[in-house]
Design a protein that fits this description.
By secondary structure, the chain is an alpha/beta fold. It has two domains: 163 residues, Rossmann fold (3-Layer(aba) Sandwich), CATH 3.40.50; 99 residues, Rossmann fold (3-Layer(aba) Sandwich), CATH 3.40.50.1100. It has nine helices and ten strands. The strands form two sheets. The protein has a six-stranded mixed beta sheet with strand order 1-2-10-7-8-9, with helices on both faces. Helix 7 links the parallel strand 7 and strand 8. The structure holds pyridoxal-5'-phosphate.
Length: 323
């Protein structure tokens, strides 16, 4: 039997695009829970550092699949559907070693389109399990080439078969920063009562810092935007890129970023433990790096109202003692 109804096909398999493709409905009650996360104070941490500033953090691990990337992935998917570039007959393909991949995979299962993820073979096993559970198809690339190698392979596949694939290209798709301009930025502005003076965020695709930073600077021209990157090319800050040695994403607009703070993996690991113990927050390494950079910024800017982002909850428990 030849299956022509996309609903009869298995995950990652599609029926080819065409007039018969079922339109996708993005107005879904579950997906309305993307964004709208709380802005939480980190007062005990600031007090213990002897700071005279305010530090607030967006708890992005409370998004449906547990990371900030639900915002970008949903923004990208929503726009592609609206423009007729993604439907039930097509397969979304992109490179991502973790959170964006899981967000796409959930969206594909929820809305009814195929998802193919290209990722380094050393991606975290729990992420692979989640991707498989959502029915995504996985393509592995050389870990030594990091997600840069995955990007090249995703682009190659999409170019070879443009009718089969929608290449969502999170590293170059303006819908990624636009999602943060439309949601993360306004949320932070309103939740801080328009008091935010500094915005500190990790840089992966640069979507979060570019979109949010642009919105916040439009509200307050003097606002400082601080990017957080790993100290070197080999690092344990999952989700972040060492831009001097990486493929430069066009979703990162350096004109928005006033300065960059580089954080060592060990420093983030220590902060991860402190966030658990002092604030009751289980966060990932990139979140801990952003908080560590924020404390450094605050110690040189008394009276500042700093807002940062906690992108995800990471993997496994935080360290129990200060290193
Ligand atoms: C855990 C984590 N932190 C930070 C980021 C960086 O966010 P952005 O891609 O918006 O720069 C990512 C992106 O994948 C991430 O997965």
């Amino acid at each position: 039997m030849v299956a022509t109804d996309p609903r009869m096909l298995g995950p990652g398999v599609d029926a080819g695009s065409g007039p018969a493709a079922r339109p996708l409905r993005v107005d879904d009650p579950f997906l309305r829970s993307v964004g709208g996360t709380p802005l939480v104070p980190l007062s005990r941490l600031v007090e213990s550092a002897g700071g005279e500033f305010e530090l607030w953090a967006k708890a992005e691990f409370l998004n449906p699949t547990g990371s900030v990337k639900d915002r970008a992935a949903f923004g990208i998917v929503r726009q592609a559907i609206a423009e007729g570039r993604l439907d039930a007959g097509r397969t979304l393909i992109d490179a991502s070693s973790g959170n964006t991949a899981v967000a796409y995979a959930m969206l594909g299962a929820r809305l009814g389109f195929g998802v193919e993820i290209v990722l380094p073979r050393n991606a975290h096993p729990s992420q692979l399990e989640r991707l498989r559970a959502f029915g995504a198809r996985l393509v592995f690339t050389d870990p030594l080439e990091s997600t840069d190698g995955s990007q090249r392979e995703a682009r190659r596949r999409a170019t070879e078969d443009p009718l089969h694939y929608f290449y969502s290209d999170q590293y170059n798709n303006p819908a990624n920063p636009d999602a943060h301009y439309a949601s993360t930025g306004p949320e932070i502005w309103h939740q801080s009562g328009g008091r935010v003076t500094h915005f500190v965020a990790g840089v992966g695709t640069g979507g979060t810092i570019t979109g949010t930073g642009r919105y916040l600077k439009e509200q307050r021209a003097s606002l400082a935007v601080v990017g957080v990157e790993p100290a070197g090319p080999m690092h344990g800050l999952e989700g972040l890129k060492h831009l001097p040695t990486a493929l430069r994403p066009s979703t990162y607009d350096e004109r928005i970023v006033d300065r960059t703070v580089r954080v060592e993996t060990e420093e983030a690991e220590t902060m991860r433990g402190r966030l658990a113990r002092l604030e009751g927050l289980e966060v990932g390494m990139s979140a801990a790096a952003a908080v560590s950079a924020s404390i450094g910024v605050g110690l040189t800017a008394p009276g500042a109202v700093i807002v940062t982002v906690l992108p995800d909850a990471g993997h496994g428990p935080a360290p129990a003692e200060d290193a």
